[in-house]
Amino acid sequence: MAPSTFASAGFSASSRPELIERQFNALCRISHSLCQVTSIEDTLREILGILHNDAGLQHGIITLSDPEHSKLQVGAVYSDSESVRKASSGIRYQSGEGIVGRILQHNQPIVLGRISSEPRFLDKLALYDLELPFIGVPIRDTDGSAIGVLAAQPDVPADDYMPDRTTFLKAVGDMLAQTTRLLVNVERGQNLASERDELRREVRGKYGFENMVVGGTDNMRRVFDQVRRVAKWDSTVLVLGESGTGKELIASAIHYNSPRAHKRFVKLNCASVPETLLESELFGHEKGAFTSAVKQHKGRFEQADGGTLFLDEIGEISPMFQAKLLRVLQEREFERVGGTQTIKVDVRIVAATNRNLEEEVDRGKFREDLYYRLNVMSIKLPPLRERLADIPELSQFLIGKIAKGQGRQLRLTDGAIRQLVSYDWPGNVRELENCLERAAIMTEAETIDADVISLNGSAGSIVAPMLQPANPAVDFNDPELDERERLIAALEQAGWVQAKAARLLGMTPRQIAYRIQTMNINVRKI
Ligand SMILES: Nc1ncnc2c1ncn2[C@@H]1O[C@H](COP(=O)(O)OP(=O)(O)OP(=O)(O)O)[C@@H](O)[C@H]1O
């Protein structure tokens, strides 16, 4: 066999015997590693490390088929980049999709001399050097069917030894089969899939809640577990998390998975109601209790009788109102404003805040006794930047929701998803949803590509048309307007001075600032 020289600085062998010797040594180390399996995932990663360091096969990736969805899901990836490793668990390939999906579908190796010459190659993780070759082999079960794919990239351009590398990778695939089978059948088949799917079925499925909460990362699975456990009891729950992390969604998941699901889920955002109206909103009022009380009104507590009352932004209520709420939580009874009759209700309370209530208690801003009443069980939602691996699935879910709302088909390209995964989402899932909605508006075709994804929220603002100075003033008292339109109309009328607009709407500056933020209104600077 003619000697050959490798051009790479990373791995070089001057002859075929040298290559074979290195591969042999790598196989010995892999075999040793497989005999000492402690954690299957760690072992798979270790094997990809051996391929990278000892056999000149970089960017190794092992994808495993998911029996329920006939999809491939990343089981392990070798990369120096933390964000790639994190994002990898959210990547899926359909059988037949791209090159990896075709290896699974046809149960045959595929070798590319140069990735860039194969248009069907999907580099979903932006992992590869597109000018170098690629080798992918099926991982086969005992009956010969493909249960996964092992792929890696030689760190030198294609040469005479590509068949040797392919044979070597096939041998590694065969050695891995038993381990990956274990992973599929034991860890994922029995634990992950059944446990997670059971939780998801419970959280999503039961009372029409299916397909509303997305999240497969460990920290979200913990949240689903907590929801499942707490839902069946009447305990008060405090949902904590940054704005836009899904606190309201989780509160409704608790309600719709509880024995109270057939009764009402009533919400009140404590920050959006002026303090003077909060009492009558919650407890109701009798006719004539105040000037505008022209008839009796049942408050949210009464409306939620038998069901769940969700008190959002509970950290925003004043000390005076905290005292009133404490009494109701202790005694489960109250009087309507202007009334004398004591009303008893059977209401489960779920409260939420993005504040650190413990700190607020320490600072004397939030009553300690009320805090303990609310914090019987707390559920903390992780910010999106701590679960970037959820972004591909979340984005697909959200774009499906947007497409349904717009009555059209919409699809995100892999490039668009890569772009979404590269950002840290300070506004969490709400910001992701708004970003996708903007992208959908900016796209006439079905396919949303990376170039219309605007990550700072500046381009293509959905409120832009309303902000044009030429627009005639809109009457913010018009009953046809929804809350967002009313806010924008008042801001327009007030020359975008928030304090002025707040006065027009009978809100405090803090309340209007909060609504502007949650409704993602781009504040116009005049
Ligand atoms: N895990 C998730 N799966 C699907 N959609 C989600 C998820 N988390 C949040 N969303 C969506 O993101 C948006 C914001 O969520 P939500 O209103 O529940 O957040 P929040 O934490 O209550 O926000 P805020 O504190 O500002 O009130 C909603 O449209 C919600 O449906």
Can you walk me through this structure?
The chain has 18 helices and 15 strands. It has 526 residues and is of the alpha/beta class. It has 4 domains: 16-189, GAF domain (Beta-Lactamase, 2-Layer Sandwich), CATH 3.30.450.40; 218-380, P-loop containing nucleotide triphosphate hydrolases (Rossmann fold, 3-Layer(aba) Sandwich); 384-452, Helicase, Ruva Protein, domain 3, CATH 1.10.8.60; 464-518, no CATH class. It has a 6-stranded antiparallel β-sheet with strand order 3-2-1-6-5-4. A hairpin with a 6-residue loop joins strand 10 (333-335) and strand 11. Helix 1 (16-35) runs parallel beside helix 5. The structure holds adenosine-5'-triphosphate. Adenosine-5'-triphosphate (ATP) binds next to helix 7, helix 13 and helix 15.
CATH domain class name of the largest domain:
Alpha Beta
Distinct bound molecules: adenosine-5'-triphosphate
β-strand amount: 5-15%
Radius of gyration: 29 Å
Organism: Mangrovimicrobium sediminis
Keywords: Activator, ATP-binding, DNA-binding, Nitrogen fixation, Nucleotide-binding, Transcription, Transcription regulation, Two-component regulatory system
Protein name: Nif-specific regulatory protein
Function: Required for activation of most nif operons, which are directly involved in nitrogen fixation.
